[in-house]
């Protein structure tokens, strides 16, 4: 089986939409200023994980300020992930109705507002801001890859690298800088988290010219009927067993990742590591994910069956979790590296399976929407459940053991999803 073209890995939420002449003219105007577009993409991508990664090293301070239990504290991470799934359902419709550029600008502004609301006094603000952050990131998650595929079809490989690299860089810097920023702002975790709203505002300002240039295209798209379908509606992906297998693999790998986003620094600090060191190790875990995220999709496209890769990535994540159970501090850098490669490889594989299991671009877009919606809703359970079990037992043994069970389930469902079949 030949490797899929690099642009196929960028799923377009508007794959079944054809621009009218007005829309095409607006896009040509945008591409006449590629530097402006590139700057906007980079700055938007940097924001796609920073708001989540910046909160993890400060979880203990947030908990102490509000007197929250571990279960309630986990909602700071679970609520955004939950609304990643909710937002994923609305993003394609919003993109078609108002135009991708407008929705992305609004998402960045919403992200900045959510970050500020999250640090305002009161528990409702903490959770309400987290909700807004999740919705904003969901819009960026769904629409950004399609925009890149639409506007850079001949440079998809390089733009994928820019997009993914900027996203990982944002998470890495935010995780490493959270505790130092807290100290620089007089031990204020609120100021440390609020700082990242400035990044969202800068990205929104950089995106504004694209909105102004593309202002004529809203509402000028037409629906496209898939070739060969006649008047028969295409089969719903929600009725496909294979689609559910792909979706569950997406959800389970997201679940183990968001548990780490929520609790990895806390696991280290609970075993005696300083908060600043825990933040740096967590940042390293984010950074090393790029190795798996780039390498695994390239290998997956060269295979008829991706089962060996399913075994590799799930085994690496299981090995990393086992290391956290056996020697969390002395082996922290090693376990973070093993987990990082496994995490990056798993999400890269999950996204690639969506393409490889789809027969056309429209099916791929629909399967992507299904996988992101259900997957993030499933993933939102992870941080909450891990926090509740930790609170009930007083240690991380059982929560980590449950994550090993998630790895086993992902292995089983992944082996089915990796078969050489089409939805």
Automatic annotation (TrEMBL):
Pfam families tied to this protein: MFS_1
Main location: membrane
Topology within the bilayer: Multi-pass membrane protein
Entry keywords, A to Z: Membrane, Transmembrane, Transmembrane helix
Domain (Major facilitator superfamily (MFS) profile) ranges: 33-422
Keyword Transmembrane: yes
Highest taxon above the source species: Bacteria
Annotated InterPro entries: MFS, MFS_Cyanate_Porter, MFS_dom, MFS_trans_sf
Chain ranges passing through the membrane: 35-55, 75-95, 102-120, 126-148, 160-181, 193-213, 241-264, 276-296, 308-327, 333-356, 368-390, 396-418
Intracellular or extracellular location(s): Cell membrane
Gene3D superfamilies from the UniProt entry: MFS general substrate transporter like domains
Name assigned to this protein: CynX/NimT family MFS transporter
